[in-house]
Amino acid sequence: MGSGAAQPGPRSRTARGVSFLEVVFAMIVLALTVATLATGVNAIANQQGRSRQLLNCAEIANRLIIQYLDDRKALPSEDLTIPYGDEFYRYRKNVTRVAATLDETVERNLEAYQNRQPGADPDRLKKVVITVWLSERSGGGRLPDMGAPQQTLVRVVDPYAFGRRSPDSLRNLLQNDPSALIEEISGSDVEADEEDE
After folding, report:
1. Does residue 124 belong to any structural domain of this protein?
2. Rounded to 10 degrees, what is the CA torsion of 3, 5, 9, 13?
């Protein structure tokens, strides 16, 4: 033993290497996690886009109702698309007479009032329905019931309630088309009576 050769000592413990199958399995788990996150982010972006389209439909419907009340002859044709931002929308308008059903006490009071104040007929009310939807030019449809984002806005209008309308609206009605005032009071713009549900 005097030769100076080193004696083998206790073996040191080395870290075990990662096998090829473990690396493949880790990559698969990582890819599935990234795919799941990407799908979730994509779904959120799609839902946000649809919500924006629904909000645009509601905004356009509101503007069309106001325009109908102010100057219905200035409404765009229902055959044309309405540009709004980067997208195009279509609309449909329907005006019906509201069939009023009153309980007996109200009806008696109304009859007494009508004897003193003509024109208090409850059937004079009109229901204006505007439906707006995403047009086929922007990925929607030509008709509203084709699955495109859409909103319907309903407004009940009393043609005799001139005191409740804005002064600008009444002035526009008288200046632009005085015959529209007679149409509104007489109800000649009503397309049909309301159907019973």
Report:
1. yes
2. 180
